[in-house]
């Protein structure tokens, strides 16, 4: 028997739901079930209409709030989500070309993913956002930033370099210039600690430190360490993937609710894995009519070459065989991908494979965590990279035994080219299908996008890709992720705070040291 008649608060309009209560009582649906379970599942269980059950849920919550005196205190003291949508607030990339592709930057209130292979510039992109969030609108939110790392610690050395060399940041007065003191950081080495931080410490830190940007770098690291293990039992592997999918759905719902409730921009980095394109379909076999015509043509040519004819001196004419009673089988249909299959559809939501040329299908990637995680995102930004090779320069020498010794591979990677591509987003149009988006470089002063005019100028001027104006070295000679993450790690003096206790320690900065970011524990 249900507890509805005993738990319903006084003054609850039960007569409005008299047609629902008997069925709920018969199927042992408790008040806790109504308040916590999904209305669709509960309606199916109790065999009642879904809209009516949702109306009962809303009425029950309202009555309980009124009984506890929470009705007035629950009035929002901040603008609602609908009001926030009327005011554009976004975090800039501090580059006009990249901002133009993003329609102004990454807006608050959305869950956005930055994905790309190792060395594509994901961490450099995120570090720029951490500083830009502190700027006043329209380039920032005038708020602090929170960096949650699952792998390496925050790259404070690189942040200091950006503050000193970026033309927009270095020219600001001290009162409005971004600071490392307004960047909070914490490491989550496993899934259990990550879930605890996101559920309990993150809302407290956002409210206490006026956080406007939350960065998670990267979202796939802990899941890969936890679930991508060799499973000898196939059933155990399937169960592990089911648990991972459920956890990803919970994580996505949690991050989206944080973005909407607090009006912050939530940006996560994601890794990629290789994707292999399907082999091209085999050519259809020749039809029976074509085979017969080729045979007749060959026989006629053989007869003409012998000079004889059907006489005694010439070759005999082929004796026609009896006609077959069965028709020739039709040629097989050419293989084509199913329109609704994942292999076909993922070309438009992964960021790789939407080009029509087959040459572009040789280095396909797929963002980690699969389709389940993709459905949790509001936007996906893909960072692509491609090598630029030097001209072939084989060099042949003589080895100690006198044989020829080929030194080198003939070609070598001279530099890397990088692009930013909008895969999907609700506030701006996606990049053109088949295009790579906006090309950019990673320099000491940050991300530098390149427009069509810049690309044409480089094509006429030769290389120029490894040096910036004035001979500034590219910070990306960091071709791999290790050099891209160069400088990661905390410095000597850190301000440590506890999100729940609010304890601070005194920084022990030495003269000349850059101030460290705050570390959340």
TrEMBL record:
Cross-referenced Pfam families: Rad51
Cited Gene3D superfamilies: P-loop containing nucleotide triphosphate hydrolases
Residues covered by region (Disordered): 276-339, 450-521
Keywords of this entry: ATP-binding, Nucleotide-binding
UniProt GO MF annotations: ATP binding; ATP-dependent DNA damage sensor activity; DNA strand exchange activity; double-stranded DNA binding; single-stranded DNA binding
GO aspect biological process, one term: DNA strand invasion
Biased composition (Low complexity): 288-297
UniProt biased composition (Basic and acidic residues): 460-470
Domain RecA family profile, residue spans: 87-272
Listed Pro residues bias regions: 278-287, 312-334
Protein's name according to its UniProt entry: DNA recombination and repair protein Rad51
